[in-house]
Amino acid sequence: MPILEAIVLGMVQGLTEFLPVSSTAHLALIPWLVTRLGLANWSDPGLTFDVALHAGTLFAILFYFWRTWIQILRAAFGGKVVRFSETSDNVRDLTPEEQHRERQLLWYMIAATIPAAIAGALLEKRIETTFRAPVLVASMLIIVAIVMWLAERASRFQKPLPQITLGDAMTVGVLQAFAVVPGVSRSGITITGGLFRNFTREAAARFSFLLSTPIIAGAALLKLHHVMKEGLPPGMATGFAVGMVVSAVVGYATIAWFIRYLQTKTLTVFIVYRILFGVLVLLLGYFGHFSG
Fold first, then answer.
1. What tens digit of pLDDT does each residue of 66-121 get?
2. pLDDT digits 0-9 by tens, 163-186
3. What is the Cα–Cα distance from 174 to 194, expressed in whole angstroms?
4. What is the spatial distance between Cα 214 and Cα 219, in angstroms, rounded to a whole number?
5. How many CA atoms lie within 13 A of 197 on its CB side?
6. Within 13 Å, how many C-alpha atoms sit on residue 167's CB side?
7. Cα distances (angstroms) measured from residue 14 to each of 187, 242, 248, 263, 280
8. Up-side HSE of residue 230: CA atoms within 13 Å toward CB?
9. Bridge pairing between strands 82-83 and 92-93
């Protein structure tokens, strides 16, 4: 695999895994678009390389939210817990009510992860083949953009993350299951679900990122098992490592920027981008018939 392709796709993954524009859509379509436009002869590197990139963004999530995860896990298992942010060392003891909410958050995330885990297990073969068709991907980009727009109009943006309920978590979790279809976007559909449940935009993004952690980890471990049995394709090892590192670095920067962005901005720019990108792919596919 060309190193340049690994770097570009690593950057694409780091940006699009956390922005609501569908990382899988971009990873599947960009090699096709580069080849279609005559810029280079790139082939879709396949799901194995996708998972290497997802492993990079998993490291990004864990590094950015490591304090949050420690807080949640210690609260869940009865340890002493303090409140701190990802960017500050200022701490204070949590009240008993706050510790109870932190414990609930972990169990809610576990329950909300189940629908996506089932969908991924049942549809694994289709994810690797028919679900990566450009027409389907482009259609999902546009359809979910419309749903995001509806969520922006419907939400009251009132609920912070500590006020999450089981109903909130399961709504987002069920929607996350649809992200097995490229073009839907895990972050896009889960943030949208949070908005429909009247989360603030920042709270919806934080829950989306936390909820994605076990799914990304599970997908990476599952594929790692296959890779250990079959080995990496020839010439893939260097690109595999480069893509993982690049996606981790870019992913961390994207998380930090996007959470700050949502404190004052709407999702409008991402809605417009999804529609334009989807229309572009449909037009290219129509005139080129998606052939070689």
1. 988 888 888 777 666 565 555 555 556 667 777 778 888 999 999 999 999 898 87
2. 999 999 999 999 999 998 888 999
3. 12
4. 8
5. 27
6. 5
7. 13, 12, 6, 21, 22
8. 11
9. antiparallel
